[in-house]
Amino acid sequence: MRLTVRGTGTAVLGLLMLGVGLWWRYAGMAAFGLALVALVVASIVSVLIASPLSVSRTVRPRTVPRLARCNGRLELSATGRWPVALDAVDMVAGSPMSVDVPLLKPGSVEASTT
């Protein structure tokens, strides 16, 4: 995992503000710097810890003549204790197709048909 330019800038600015605030004994600047560093740490932790997710995908019929229709169904379920927001992409005929997924509440199953 790599930080983006914005994340790196925020971390550097936060550490700089924290250091200068402590050196000058300026509590407001130190607190703001600490908040920026905490924000970067929280962002890193939220990316590294995967949310438990259950996925089921079905396509009917499996084989179709050229330009014929088929239906796909994508079922997503969050199995953890917290709601999950995500972006889903399904490959259709070799090209990515975005799938609208609402906020997944714990234990509920959301289905999308394409």
Compact description:
This protein has helices spanning 5-23, 27-48; strands spanning 53-60, 71-78, 88-92, 95-99, 109-113. With 114 residues, it is of the alpha+beta class. The model has no long low-confidence stretch (mean pLDDT 88).
Structural class: alpha+beta
Mean pLDDT: 88
Judging from the principal axes of the Cα atoms, what is the shape?
A: elongated
Number of strands: 5
Low-confidence stretches: none
Spatial ordering of strands, largest sheet: 1-2-5
Give the CA-CA distance, first to last residue: 33 Å
Total of helices: 2
Keywords:
three-stranded antiparallel β-sheet; about 110 residues; two-stranded antiparallel ribbon; alpha+beta; 2 helices
Strand and helix layout:
Elements: H1 5-23, H2 27-48, E1 53-60, E2 71-78, E3 88-92, E4 95-99, E5 109-113
Antiparallel strand pairs: 1-2, 2-5, 3-4
Structure description:
This protein has helices spanning 5-23, 27-48, and strands at 53-60, 71-78, 88-92, 95-99, 109-113. The chain has 114 residues and is α+β, with helices and mostly antiparallel strands. A three-stranded antiparallel beta sheet has the order 1-2-5, with no helix packed on it. Strand 3 (88-92) and strand 4 (95-99) form a beta hairpin. The longest helix is centred in the N-terminal third of the chain and has 22 residues, at 27-48. The protein is elongated.
